[in-house]
Amino acid sequence: MAKWVYEFGDGAAEGKSEMRDLLGGKGANLAEMANLGLPVPPGFTITTEVCTYFYDHGKTYPPELEAQVNAALEQAGKIAGHVFGDEANPLLVSVRSGSRASMPGMMDTVLNLGLTDSTVEALAKSSGNDRFAYDSYRRFIQMYSNVVLDVDHHLFEDILETFKERKGYSLDTDLTGADWKLMITAYKAKVQEVLGKPFPQDPKAQLWGAIGAVFGSWMNPRAITYRRLQNIPASWGTAVNVQAMVFGNMGETSATGVAFTRNPSTGASELYGEFLINAQGEDVVAGIRTPQNITEAARIEAGSDKPSMETALPEVFAEFLRATELLEKHYRDMQDMEFTVETGKLWMLQTRNGKRTAKASLRIAVEMANDGLITREEAVMRIDPAALDQLLHPTIDPKAERQVVVTGLPASPGAASGEIVFNSDDAEAAKASGRKCILVRVETSPEDIHGMHASEGILTTRGGMTSHAAVVARGMGKPCVSGAGSVRVDYKAGTMTSAGVTFKKGDIITVDGTTGQVIKGAIAMLQPELSGEFATLMEWADGVRRMGVRANAETPTDARVARKFGAEGIGLCRTEHMFFEGDRIVAVREMILADDEAGRRKALAKLLPIQRADFAELFEIMSGLPVCIRLLDPPLHEFLPHTDDEIAEVATSLGVSEDKLRSRASELHEFNPMLGFRGCRLAIAFPEIAEMQARAIFEGAIEAKKKTGAMVTPEIMVPLVFGKTELDLVKASIDAMAKAVETETGDKVPYSVGTMIELPRACLLAAEIAESAEFFSFGTNDLTQTGLGISRDDAASFLGPYTAKGILASDPFVTIDQRGVGELVEIGIARGQKTRPAIKLGICGEHGGDPASIHFCEKVGLTYVSCSPFRVPIARLAAAQAALAVKSKS
Ligand code: PEP
Ligand code: MG
Fold first, then answer.
1. What pLDDT digit, counting tens, does each position of 149-181 carry?
2. Ligand 1 mean position to 431 CA, how many Å?
3. CA 757 to ligand 2 center in whole angstroms
4. Which ligand is nearest to the CA of 866?
5. pTM for this prediction
6. Which of 216, 326, 525, 857 has its CA 20 to 30 A from that of 108?
7. How large is the C-alpha radius of gyration of the chain?
8. Which atom of ligand 1 is nearest to the CA of 758?
9. What is the pLDDT of residue 884?
10. Which atom of ligand 1 lies nearest, measured to the CA of 633?
């Protein structure tokens, strides 16, 4: 008989942590904790296979499931000393979702399930605490109605608020047992009113309702969005965990909390967390009461006057500390744990590898490797390359004057400035129109994921360091200040007010997630410091990396940043970018407007010294590292003015008539410029352009050598060839220029000539092209454009539905389309190597900085990847991980 349910509790479990795919992360870890002998409330996990079955069979369950659930319930009850549904001694349970990957977009927890009008009486009697029992029941009605029955929780909050106002109460704790009884009656009446049927009084019906809601939540829009953003396949499914309730709200010796074995913001090796005495799970994260520190050291540092768990519950603290140490050693990673203390007894409710900032993840990985808990290779594998982005971005200049509006909690590090928006749709709209924004909310919920993505930073007025906003922002690497309690947000008016100062939607603020400060206006930022653990981990990564990492750079600034970030050369210098600056554009335009070759040569002669100086400087900065320079690529019309005003201005500055300028611009107009007069086609039609560039390269190399003493070996790259003949024609003029410069100067510059492979035909004819090309650089931007027939510039309008419908796994301009474009690359490599076995193979499209694409590059054996300077560290790490992954498979 198929097994759909796995039990745990009482120091044993049917599952274990390796069964994550089947039991989900939460279920597998509960089983593992039970196996480790830690105190875990007994319960069971309904497997992810049931979820798959549920969706494959018209939302029905396997026939054996009910009996297996009943048996597991009975067993859990036996261990806990209760019976599910029993009116005198009821077992109460929690029901929680739990997929393979942690998914904040999924169903919330349902606690206290099994409470009914009659079982609540038993709970009151057995606990000797009416207030606790009725409070638990009303919480259950509210939670269950909201999560399972889809009744808006505000309806219940309104009832409670009105009641409190009438009674003159300010806190929930002011309500007595009798008060909560009144609330229960009112809540049930509300459910009847909204749903037209009573709140379910049969515990079994409650349980199946909750199980159905968990499986149903796998396909809710929040979960679907989250999966799309995190690349989690829908086929994984979720498990359901049903577990005996333990209560943290049974008085002063009861508590509930969350903790990390290391500090998730800094990575410091210290127990870190928050707890609340006499509270239930959701109270800690809800941010309504301010949580207390777990350790005394943290309490002192925070300057809190509320006792730490270490002093308030010293014995439980000691046991908890042992459990946390055991768990970290066992999992060999920082753990994020939930626990409850019920009248002095510790219960572990969850453990998982904790989410952390990039900074913390580096420190934790390096320290764990140094302590011998993990290997250096594991440390390298542990860091998400994309998360390094957080460390590579600016922080606030400490010398800058800060007009601090308010200080909240430093929930996610880094700093960002932008205009205030008060909801996620406005954040998306701002981003779509190219404006940077800061999302300001009282608190965030999973519905705000898209807004958080679209904004530069997040500010919330409620919630602690473990609030939704804090956790999600850290995961996304966005700065976040949470719990800025003195800020009043008025959504209707579109304002936020702090200390008498009011800001409107659109006003600029800066959030500093490292200090918790919110600052008026934009502020000077500093470049990141790349030493310490970052440098250590990068060194380890470089030690295992096979592929080279170069940068796409053309300006001296870019080249310097690239070197600082560890680039081993320039993989693509787009010379056209050098044509726009200062007075160069004037000479470029003169060249384009020239009526004949002589006119063009005259204008090019003006450009020559400028280009030569550009190249000389680049060679100098790169001091002997390879520099790959691409000949002019874009269609010439890109250099001409387009609007009437621009045309008038340029005509005056060039001393030509507006008509002439306009008519040349219209001559150069193309319907498909990206498939038009560009790339090597320019060099073939106007050889004098390539000649000037080749001369500038050779003369620049000689100049740089004179200054630095190091000989550079320029790589000269021809763009957009579809066959050997084009390359041969251009190569001939480069070779001729090399000879000419040698004759003129007596200096011989070593150089190589290669080509971009960025058209499908070039991949197919790579064997022939490699007869002439000394290297290939795959231009996967154009290869994606031409391979899929999708315009690089116009794809945004339809790529959304294409990825949403699964036609494309992801944006092919971000992550290489391995099946199609990837195969073209593989064909290009195989055929190129046939005629030139040692051919140097690079990639310089955007994919060169994308970790998933870099993995592909390693697999197919490229020599190097080249990407934008800021992505160089990401590429170095991703290349190391790819090398380790490929090695472990072979
Ligand atoms: C490419 O096409 O991948 C490439 C690097 O060239 P560009 O983006 O300049 O067209
Ligand atoms: Mg290209």
1. 999 989 999 999 999 999 999 888 889 999 999
2. 25
3. 9
4. 1
5. 0.78
6. 326
7. 32
8. 2
9. 97
10. 9
